[in-house]
Design a protein that fits this description.
2 strands, mainly alpha, two-stranded antiparallel ribbon
Length: 187
């Protein structure tokens, strides 16, 4: 007889203990959650890629969004329009790379995947919600508060979820650690 017995179909004792202590833990067995430094690196790669693409497409006029002298001039509306273009470009990028690849290009380069908490593919509405909430990280000055808050809370949670993940019911995992049955939509 085993010194530890389980009842009710429990297949992973550690996972069961965590679910009892923290309320839930329904990700597939073997899934490794992405560390914060990889998530931050993927975000930075995405921002660099989108801003570079916008700069090329606009003939560098998108840089007006970052010009303090333009913001304080009579032509401040040009800076405002380019700031909106940057936010809209990032939203579209995160939404459509999520729908097509189940992750952004930065996440793909770093071997990450975004899935629902149970390992299933994200739905269109989930990608919309994630994309809109990620825009908070791009807003100057207030982004510092959102980033610090999320990093602090991610360290406190056993699921390593950011506020964005909690709202969308998603996790960011190491792509190769997901069971084969859950890797289908990840490209």
């Amino acid at each position: 007889m085993d010194p530890i017995s389980t009842h009710g179909g429990i297949t992973n004792l550690a996972k069961h203990i965590v679910s009892v202590e923290h309320g839930h833990w329904n990700i597939p067995d073997g899934t490794i959650l992405a560390p914060i430094h990889k998530r931050a690196g993927a975000f930075m790669l995405d921002v660099i890629f989108v801003n570079a693409l916008l700069s090329i497409l606009s003939g560098s006029r998108v840089m007006f969004a970052w010009s303090l002298s333009m913001w304080t001039s009579a032509d401040w509306d040009h800076s405002f329009a380019w700031a909106i273009a940057i936010l809209f470009g990032h939203f579209l990028y995160w939404r459509y790379t999520g729908l097509m690849l189940s992750r952004s290009l930065g996440q793909r380069l770093l071997g990450l995947a975004v899935v629902q908490e149970n390992g299933d593919a994200m739905e269109s509405e989930d990608w919309d919600q994630r994309s809109v909430r990620k825009l908070l990280y791009l807003l100057p000055v207030i982004n510092i508060w959102f980033i610090v808050r999320d990093v602090f809370r991610m360290h406190q949670r056993h699921t390593h979820q950011s506020e964005i993940d909690l709202a969308a019911g998603s996790i960011v995992a190491i792509a190769n650690s997901l069971p084969v049955a859950h890797r289908g939509p990840i490209r």
